[in-house]
Amino acid sequence: MSSVRLRNNVQVAGTGPATVFFAHGFGCDQNMWRLLQPAYATRFRTVLFDLVGSGGSDLSAYDSKKYASLRGYADDVLEVVEEFGEGPAIFIGHSVSAMIGLLADLTHRAKGNGFAAQVMIGPSPSYINDGNYVGGFSREDIDELLETLEGNYLGWASNMAPAIMGAPDQPALALELKNSFCRTDPEIAKQFARVTFLTDLRAELPPLTTPTLIVQCDDDLIAPVSVGQYMQRVMPRAKLAIVKNVGHCPQLSAPSDCSREIDIFLAELSISTS
Question: How many CA atoms lie within 13 A of 30 on its CB side?
């Protein structure tokens, strides 16, 4: 069995009073944090890692049964936090990793601990519309997306990357995301997509008492503003920040806006050294 460091390709930098963990979204890897993480490493201990099946993770550790649920990834996150964290834990999760962080935090809190703060960038507890809940997609939309992905993953990646990244004035970012998708093992990506788009964690939101910042883009195909507004309503200690940005990856296309909102949030919690 590989070590946690090897399994998740863990990279540690910086020192400070708390540890900031950065978790990437579907089809990505830790490189997606390159425009945010360096500034935090001057004030905090920072931990970058790849979800198993992504980036430089140990592919031999991939278990289709374990990772048939986001809880499998959440268990890994807890091991990363427990082994590499020093001081309070601040978890910054993009997209599906925001929900992985939610599950990890709830489990951690049930053991008498918990994260000091959560930052969720482009999160969604459920992508499927349900009554008054607007997740952004019908079930038919999601079924069609998964069917296309199953039949032609590389074609799907090429077509979806520009739509997901957005940032029409920065075409190199869409190409970067496409290449990241294409580097991912297609079978692993297909399973992760099913888990990502079919999971419904709305019932898990109210129990999370951790101070949480939700960063939502004002024009995001994957996670519309309505999702962030819903999460703010049902979570007891959530703050919503809407940044002006086209796309689902503001940590790359609008990094200064992201860092500004994160810094304000951490300062309000007195988790800052600047």
Answer: 19
